[in-house]
Amino acid sequence: MNVLTRKITVLFGAAAVTVATAGLNGCASMNNKERGATIGATTGAAIGAVIGKNTGGTARGAILGAVLGGAAGAVIGHQMDQQAKEIQDQVPGATVERVGEGIAVSFPSGILFPFNSTQLMPAGRENLTKLAGILQRYPGSSVLIVGHTDNVGSDSYNMTLSQQRAQAAASYLSTAGIASGSIRTEGRGESEPIVDNATEANRARNRRVEVAIFASEQYRQQILNQSGH
What we know:
By secondary structure, the protein is of the alpha+beta class. It has 2 domains: 1-55, no CATH class; 69-226, CATH 3.30.1330.60. Helices cover 58% and strands 14% of the residues. The protein has a 5-stranded mixed beta sheet, sandwiched between helices. Strand 3, helix 7 (155-175) and strand 4 form a beta-alpha-beta unit. It is globular. The two termini are 28 Å apart.
């Protein structure tokens, strides 16, 4: 087990205990099935936030927070393999990585947006249209779009810019046929660089939009039911 995997495992366990306890306290009036579903959804989101904060990746944290595991997780993982291949083959400019039972897709902001702008460029719209077409073929997916900037400008300006870019991408996916309820957005500003901001080339790499794709809570429950759990 490498250092990152060990760290995630420890964080996962600690977050699960904390959030599950909170969930139980708030679910006294629910039956067992309702209580389990509520705790599952809440725990996944909270674990994702904890992992994201501690590994520097909000998108990856969201995916790892939605891990199901076991035979049901293997079914989802196989579907994500197929979906990841389609994105890799059909969406130019996207960097595609399989993470846990989901997919992390990264777009350099220069493909989607002009510098210091929230208006999608034609190439950006084309990329998102192709991504939307693939997502429509896998309706059990949830999507988290995370905007990132370099460190030029104030923290507050960069945070707002990253939020607006994530929302612009989400709005376009919605117009392309993806249910808005399956998409969440978040802006991280300059807080999650993938490289230092010492050079323009590095700053360009940090200006990006990440898309986390993972099985929705409803779909995970459906797969569990089908597997007899």
